[in-house]
């Protein structure tokens, strides 16, 4: 097998370069001389994640499709910590990405089964306040392309980046309570009635009809009061007046005839 480099990373102070090779070895190089310093052995499948510690130049994290996460001391060529991502009843989960926190006290990984793994010091009590399963209700919505080849959401015919903030649902598409919906950026200060999604029945690709979140619940005009409609009317009136002024300014004004005779010239 011809060796191929799958990933490369400099350490925190750029003195070392670590390369991941498709023979499952990690190689530590002196970045100034190009000398090979260490072969790091431990992975059993290809590695696509190399993450340097944010301030400790000795530490490098690696993770791969074998489900292994290693923390290495690259100056000594030794591993200091190891985690194997075993999922009960499903085998191991390939680790696709890892990132350190800015203070270097935590790191987070994502795997092929949609899990977010958080490692660090202290207790896990703060993380127990949120549900185990969190997805956006738009995560698996089908997309289409318009006549200009732009991407649109198939259901709403809107560009995805112009759609309102999504709702949080579980793996079956059931929406979470309102206190969790405020975790979504853009919904932090929403009223309670805007945090209740509208449910509807949608046909899946298999032909099965399931109940899913289809959009934001609309509020009746009596519940909203008259203020929103008055404000909308004022905005429409101001826009109409501005359009009229713009149209008047664009019309060419005829110039006055000289000595009261002749045909008016163009302005």
UniProtKB/TrEMBL annotation:
A Pfam family: WD40
Biased composition (Low complexity): 249-258
Region ranges (Disordered): 237-267
Source organism, top-level taxon: Eukaryota
Example GO BP: cytoskeleton organization
WD repeats: 1-39, 40-82
PROSITE patterns the UniProt entry points to: WD_REPEATS_1 (PS00678), WD_REPEATS_2 (PS50082), WD_REPEATS_REGION (PS50294)
Keyword vocabulary terms for this entry: Repeat, WD repeat
Entry-linked PANTHER family: BROMODOMAIN AND WD REPEAT-CONTAINING PROTEIN 1, WD REPEAT DOMAIN 9
Protein name, UniProt field: BRWD1 protein
Organism the protein comes from: Sapayoa aenigma (broad-billed sapayoa)
